[in-house]
Design brief:
About 30% of the residues lie in helices and about 25% in strands. The chain is an alpha+beta fold. The chain has a single domain, classed as Alpha-Beta Complex (Peptide Deformylase). The radius of gyration is 17 Å and the shape is globular. The N and C termini lie far apart (about 40 Å).
């Protein structure tokens, strides 16, 4: 299925996208919508259409499956993203990565700033870059500001893996892919990463592939 027409008004484009039902098609790297940045949301969709769009993002994220999805990843250049992480991983992985469950939430017009100077590095993947992962150094903690889908203010500090999810999804809204921030020498196919670098932290990968960690 082709992405929505670029020249159509946003509400019309979203209606067209939702008409097919089910999970939405995810846009892959190389499509300009992933690189152009997004419009701040200021009512372009209206409450009812926004609610339908948010639900479609939720369905699509869970079906993929993923722990976050930004509107540009389904071809819609609006500053909206969703996140959710059941964190169903082994305890040693959860502890090493600071991965704790996150409820479903909607981020509207989000922005983040670092909390402190600490950075951590782990392998990341992206639904728009299927089949590949790479190590990305990110802020260990961030303060997220924005609103939810009902216009209620968000002002929350995230740490560990939730902070990584927030940064990854908000970056999408600025036209940034995780590969822009990744250590090039760490780039691995998903199969190679599973076979070789499934440890909770990327120290072994850094030593073997020749890159530094923060």
């Amino acid at each position: 299925m082709a992405p929505p027409r670029d020249h159509a008004p946003l509400a019309e484009r979203v209606e067209e996208l939702l008409a097919a039902g089910g999970p939405l098609p995810i846009v892959a790297a190389g499509q300009p919508v992933l690189r152009r940045g997004t419009e701040p949301y200021d009512g372009q969709l209206g409450p009812a259409l926004l609610a339908r769009f948010v639900e479609a993002l939720r369905v699509t994220m869970r079906a993929a499956p993923g722990v976050g999805l930004a509107a540009p990843q389904v071809g819609v250049p609006l500053r909206i993203a969703v996140i959710e992480d059941p964190a169903q991983v082994p305890e040693e992985v959860a502890v090493a990565r600071g991965r704790v469950p996150q409820p479903f939430r909607v981020l509207v017009n989000p922005s983040y700033e670092p909390v402190g100077t600490a950075r951590t590095a782990f392998f990341e993947g992206c639904l728009s870059v299927p089949g590949w992962v790479a190590v990305v150094a990110r802020h260990a903690g961030v303060r997220l500001r924005g609103t939810d889908e009902h216009g209620r203010a968000l002002d929350e500090v995230f740490t560990g893996w939730p902070a990584r999810i927030v940064q990854h999804e908000t970056d999408h809204l600025d036209g940034t892919l995780y590969l822009d921030r990744a250590e090039p020498r760490s780039l691995s196919t998903a199969e190679a990463a599973l076979a070789l670098w499934a440890q909770p932290t990327p120290e072994a990968a850094a030593e073997a592939l020749g890159f530094e960690l923060p």
